[in-house]
Amino acid sequence: xxxxxxxxxxAFRQIRLFTLTIILACLLFSGFTLYKSQQLTASLQQKVxxxxxxxxxxxxxxxxxxxxxxxxxxxxxxxxxYFFTLDPDEKVIIANTAKALYLADASAKRQYDNLTxxxxxxxxxxxxxxxxxxMDSVSIDLQQTxxxxxxxxxxxxxxxxxxxxxxxxxxGYLREVSRSDNNPHxxxxxxxxxxxxxxxxxxxx
Length: 205
Description:
Radius of gyration: 32 Å
Number of helices: 5
Oligomer: single chain
Largest sheet: 4 strands, antiparallel
Shape: rod-shaped
Order of helices and strands: HEEHHHHEEEE
């Protein structure tokens, strides 16, 4: 007489345990699915597709801190390339120096004005001189704000009768600013000055 209720009670406990187990498993599975979905969404948001020459190229978004040294070096290199790469063409000189002046403060404008007043650009045009620069190295101290840098480069001046090689050493500071079309890396060179600009080799043509 008492065994039947006992069996019913045991069966009820088993069903309740089984039901709780199923519910817990469903909750764990739902939580895991939600977590993986958020991970996938975050990773997809970091992917960017760039269309270049009709081809879709995949790029990944990263934190600026991961690439700040590379961006800083490229900013300094681009500034010197624009400022010192000149051809005997007034439009080329104006275009290149204008790009350079977007990347630096008034210290670069002062050097540009001094070169203009000393007829440096006029002499390049009159003498059919082409000037190129290659970066040898650049050291940057990112521990201080603004960051101090020193640039080492090699200039090559191609004249009608000779090729002159010069050693160029400059220094300055980098300050972070907003990115723009004219300043894609978001840095500004401050207090820029030339430490050395001397001829190292002259080759007759």
